[in-house]
Write a structure and sequence with these properties.
It contains 1 helix and 4 strands; from the N terminus they run H-E-E-E-E. By secondary structure, it is of the alpha+beta class. The chain has a domain of 50 residues. The strands form 2 sheets. Strands 1-2 form a two-stranded antiparallel sheet. Strands 3-4 form a two-stranded antiparallel sheet.
Amino acid sequence: MPKHPVPKQKQSKTRSKRRYHTFEGRVRKKLTNRIQLVKCSQCGEKRRIHHACASCGMYRGRQVLNVDKKMQKITKMQA
């Protein structure tokens, strides 16, 4: 049976957290450079490029999302 490598000393929590936090920071930086925001032509709020506006529901001059519509909560089983 082959022997597995075993660390010589315990790695501290700080050292482990530091390694993962630097990776997280690099990924977050890459994503912020990739996401592009533009002004909505109807309401003027910022929205993601090639996505419908979350505040007014317009995309390329037409209504695609019904923002005024409220979702009904289902609290009881309906037969």
